[in-house]
Design a protein that fits this description.
heterodimer, A: 333 residues, Rossmann fold, Alpha-Beta Plaits, six-stranded mixed beta sheet, 11 helices, 29% strand, B: 370 residues, mainly alpha, four-stranded mixed beta sheet
């Protein structure tokens, strides 16, 4: 069973260096039992390396982690028996059927005979692949294949389930079905889930708590609500005038509740405000006073994108594009 | 231990679903056995021989009669008469003739006067095997001319009679042991080396490594399933090849048992060797790139196609280090000679030592982490 202190995972000063690259740099955090915990960050931030260390696939350069009550370095096999892992790359065998993929994985956990057959059927049913039991994994769609991977990962009823980018590369419909499945996994079993993602909406929707990972560091860790509240300027307003406001929008800065103004060009401004609706009303009145037309006006509350920008100083998408391809870990494809 | 069986089950299910691997592994050695086995080692026949008789005396007629006798019986030569040497050599150069025999002027007279006349044989040495066969047939013919027709009271010449201890062995039977070993080798390459690296690069190993399977169980599982495939390929080729090459008394139980032991040991050694070579490789192109080199380096020096006795010294050293050599020797001993298991003791020992070495090496190199 997991440690008595109520933590499913305790990461203690984990670091990993690949040659000159410090993939993970002195990371510590704890995951409570029964929690869905997210590691959010762009490709190359070190999420996969972190998860691979926690799941005993990659030995850390320094530090350690207590996973399901066992030390990943001193007792890796005890950890492996208690965790399920759904790696980022599909690791089910394309030349085996769905039932065979699950059955062989069961055997790797020492589950054999009638128990293995029953478990295989039960899991195929649970992930909605009962009618594809005899189909080769290579014939499945991306979403079905991911569900098969999930079924395989929970064949031994693990205490903790690790999902490395569970919806990367899936179409929107498949993403939603995987999200639902992840919800069930927790609700039904009271299981701890740790997932990595570079999708803000996914982290926001699924996770109880989120650690924002950037360049090998955890830069922020809290619930999605608290993270969003911690960003000054809880609302984001985008406004476009016709013709342009004279003075480059300096007068917008002095409106009540406005935290910052950023001209985006073409007479458009992005405004951070503590009170979005009130600021929007002020903008409408300003335009009427100056006889300007408001070509567009939108008000959005803070997203995790803003949180990411706030804590890392750069947008998530920017990093994803400029990150060195495949440089963050060995064996990454 | 039981977890290793998961890997075996996986491979056997795939193997049963698509036996393509078995056909791929058997294709090369089987085609090689049938084509090379029939192409090489046949006796040379029907060589066109131009005969230029410049003598026309009674002894030259004797030579030509003997030639015609060889042409009629062993059919090594098809003699044709030529009037002059120039035309005959011209035809030899153009490839119409395989050899030209010239009986010199005054041959009969010189022979009677014991002046030791010389017959000339001009051969096309761009075809060495044909030239060699014609040369030795002609030497035998000349020797027969020299043999006195009346035996002297006390024979003074020693004679050599060659006795072959085994029934007639044609080349296809000689080649069969090598083909069996080659089938196992190709299986080890495709079903062992390539599959291992492909699975590794496709991330399947990552899926195994997150489970509690130990390093030992992984190594056992990979090797055991490879050995089963190697034994299947080796035994299939052994039976097919023995039928094609018509090995006498092939199905005799003790011999079959010995052959099975050899096939199993060879499979363990080859699969282990492949695992040893691939333990640290992750690029799927590597096994494909070294396939041809390994095949040539291990198969041809093994004595599978040509006897090791004919090798230069350095090549013999390679042969002695090559596990293929012992596999081929052991299988050949059992297939072609009707001897007991004890005759393959050295081969068995060599294969066991090879297996121990490569498996120990592979275990040292293999890592259970990414």
């Amino acid at each position: 069973m997991a440690a008595e202190n109520g933590f499913a995972i305790q990461v203690q000063n984990l670091s990993k260096r690949f040659g000159a690259l410090q993939a993970v740099n002195d990371v510590s955090f704890t995951v409570k039992r029964g929690e869905i915990f997210g590691l959010l960050g762009p490709n190359g931030a070190g999420k996969s390396t972190l998860i691979r260390m926690m799941t005993t696939l990659v030995p850390p350069s320094s530090g350690t982690a207590i996973v399901a009550g066992h030390d990943i370095i001193r007792d890796p096999n005890a950890v492996r028996e208690r965790i399920g892992v759904i790696p980022q790359n599909m690791t089910s065998d394309p030349e085996l059927t769905c039932a065979e993929n699950i059955g062989i994985h069961a055997r790797l956990y020492g589950i054999t005979g009638a128990r293995r057959r029953a478990k295989t059927l039960e899991l195929l049913e649970a992930v909605g692949l009962r009618d594809r039991a005899g189909a080769l994994a290579s014939t499945l769609s991306g979403g079905m294949r991911r569900r098969l991977e999930i079924a395989r990962g929970i064949v031994h009823d693990p205490e903790i389930l690790f999902l490395d980018e569970p919806t990367t590369g899936l179409d929107p419909v498949s993403r939603v079905s995987v999200w639902e499945m992840i919800g069930h996994l927790r609700v039904e079993q009271g299981r701890t889930l740790l997932l990595t993602t570079h999708y803000m909406d996914e982290a926001d929707r699924l996770c109880d708590r989120i650690a924002i990972v950037d360049r090998g560091h955890v830069v922020a860790l809290d619930t999605p609500v608290a993270l969003k509240a911690s960003v000054p300027g809880a609302s984001r307003i985008e406004v476009q005038f016709e013709p342009d406001l004279p003075g480059g929008g300096a007068e917008l800065q002095v409106l009540p509740a406005v935290k910052s103004v950023r001209p985006l060009g073409s007479a458009t401004y992005r405004i951070s405000s503590d009170r979005g609706p009130a600021s929007a009303q002020e903008l409408v009145e300003l335009a009427r006073d100056r006889k300007l037309e408001l070509k567009s006006l939108s008000v959005a509350s803070t997203t995790l994108d803003d949180v990411f920008l706030h804590y890392t100083g750069h947008a998530l998408a920017e990093v994803a594009e400029t990150a060195p391809a495949g440089g963050h870990m060995r064996g990454g494809h | 231990m039981l977890r290793a069986l998961a890997l075996v089950e996986r491979d056997m299910r795939k193997f049963r679903r698509s036996p393509a691997l078995l056909f791929a592994s058997l294709g090369l050695p089987l085609v090689q056995l049938i084509i090379l086995g029939n192409a090489f080692g046949g006796s040379i026949k029907n060589v066109n021989l131009g005969v230029v008789n410049l003598d026309h005396g009674p002894k030259s007629v004797d030579v030509i009669e003997r030639l015609r006798a060889v042409g009629a019986n062993a059919r090594i030569f098809l003699p044709t008469d030529y009037a002059d040497e120039g035309t005959a050599v011209g035809d030899l150069r153009e490839g119409n003739l395989g050899a030209v025999l010239i009986i010199p002027r005054h041959y009969s007279r010189d022979l009677l006067e014991q002046h030791q006349p010389r017959l000339a044989l001009i051969t096309d040495n761009s075809e060495q095997t044909v030239a060699g066969a014609v040369g030795s047939a002609m030497t035998a013919l000349v020797n027969s001319i020299n043999t006195p027709e009346v035996s002297p009271r006390e024979p003074r010449q020693a004679a050599l009679d060659v006795v072959e201890v085994y029934p007639y062995i044609n080349y296809i039977k000689y080649l069969l042991p090598g083909s069996v070993a080659l089938a196992i080798f190709v299986t080890a390459m495709i079903g062992g080396g390539m599959l291992f690296i492909d699975d590794k690069s496709r991330g399947l190993h990552e899926g195994y490594m997150v489970t509690p399977i130990t390093k030992w169980e992984l190594i056992l599982g990979f090797n055991l399933s490879g050995v089963i495939k190697g034994v299947l390929a080796g035994m299939t080729l052994l039976v097919l090849g023995a039928l094609v090459a018509q090995v006498p008394n092939f199905f005799e139980p003790v011999r079959l048992l010995g052959l099975t032991v050899m096939v199993i040991l060879t499979s363990i050694a080859f699969i282990g060797m492949m695992f040893f070579l691939m333990a640290r490789i992750s690029d799927p192109l590597v096994p494909r790139a070294i396939f041809g080199v390994l095949n040539t380096l291990l198969f041809f020096p093994s004595g599978a196609v040509y006897p090791i006795a004919g090798f230069p010294h350095w090549l013999r050293v390679i042969a002695e280090c090559d596990p293929f050599t012992y596999a081929v020797h052991g299988l050949r001993t059992l297939l072609l000679k009707d001897v007991g298991i004890t005759a393959i003791g050295a081969d068995v020992l060599a294969l066991v030592l090879t297996s121990a070495f490569v498996l120990a090496g592979a275990t040292l190199l293999f890592r259970r982490t990414l």
